[in-house]
């Protein structure tokens, strides 16, 4: 990639990053907005990323690299349930921090969360942890079910929940699947309150 093209790509992704962080709705941000914020022509965006979805995927991949670094650097030792809980907790944090961007991707017609590279990575990790905890029977499905608990539309629906409530719910679910223990005392749950 030429130096000017690399600079433009960096500027576009930085501008898109700022705009998505500031937005409350993914439809508020157009390619025109991103081009203007990056100081490039709209044609540059289309040449570099193809379309809006291509740009969203590139931005998501860049943020995903940061999440991958966190997961690798801070991966806990211990039983499979604790390692799975760490993964799910970080995915929720990532999706809360990238709320509008992940909604934009998951709401797009061809942006299914099941087709992203990060979803596949997380699924593979969870299949291994479920298999380690309870054997291979249904491990593939149970890994998908755990990831359903951290979908962006659910994270959005529960956006006002404090971290402690998220933690209690994720802990209860993860331990129920991997340890077979979903009691409030084991999970640190905050009672039977439902949303």
TrEMBL record:
Residues 6-67 form the HTH tetR-type domain. The keyword Oxidoreductase does not apply. PROSITE patterns: HTH_TETR_2. Residues 30-49 bind DNA. Keywords: DNA-binding. It comes from the Bacteria. Coiled coil: none annotated. InterPro entries: Homeodomain-like_sf, HTH-type_TetR-like_transc_reg, HTH_TetR. This is TetR/AcrR family transcriptional regulator.
